[in-house]
What we know:
Elements: H1 4-13, E1 28-32, E2 37-43, H2 56-64, E3 67-70, H3 79-89, H4 105-118, H5 122-125, H6 130-144, H7 153-158, E4 166-169, H8 173-181, H9 186-197, H10 200-212, H11 216-223, H12 232-256, E5 263-268, H13 278-284, E6 288-291
Parallel strand pairs: 2-5, 3-4, 3-5
Antiparallel strand pairs: 1-2, 1-6
Amino acid sequence: MIKQLIVGALIYVVFSFQLIASEDRALFWRVDSAQTTVYLLGSIHFADESFYPLRTEIERAFEESKTLVVEIDESVPGTAEKFQGLMQNEGMYSGDERLKDHLSEKTYQALQVHLKELGIPSDLIEKQKPGMVVLTIAAIQAQQTGLKPDMGIDLHFMSKLNSHKKILALETVEEQLRIFLEIEDADLLLQDSLHSLETVKEEMKELTRAWKQGDEKAMYKMLFEDLANENVAITDLYERLYFQRNIKMTRSIKSYLKQNEKYFVVVGAGHLIGDKGIVQLLKNAGFRITRQ
Length: 292
């Protein structure tokens, strides 16, 4: 079974690195066109005090930019309500239907063992659909390390917005959640996720080291290298979770590069790396890209 899935979900939720960020090389690029410059920063969505201050070059690039671009603009009124509404209306089973009804006995019992190890009450997830269970486990694991969503890199920059800066969103909360709401093979999803939980702490330490040292190859190897050998349901999930979104995000970034003002783009770090990552897609389109 793959180790990437729950790690991938953790990166989707957090990309948690507990080191002093002012010394980090980080995943940070400058993209230049004939008209302007766009900065790309690999994001972490949960963090703590040890992440700040960020490297001077990163903060300076933000100050130079006219527009901040994030995956989701959480400052838009009603965003939290939309998220909760989707979770309740589409991420939960109705009536007497339960998670157990959609899993094999083996997978369901393995889930109970892992929930107990994580200190998650079974009742908390009993009505959740499998994709929501994966996100719940990932978020709880992140918070058990002491990381907080209100200290994430995205929110750090959003809190620094003023009347001289604009904010744009690359996606909506509906688009992001639907990836996990529309998973077809529930049993396989949870099987792979539970197997991955056994090594996820060590995997996250290695990802931390890779990010700290700017080691894109090591990060790519852990996240994506073995996907070609996996079940089609898993590769399809990664196609939707990363690669299709990368294409859409790149299309938006290319439109920014036609403008006459600078943009500062903050997206999940997994979207920037590899042959199908945003950085490579922009290189393929002929833009000049410099690692900062």
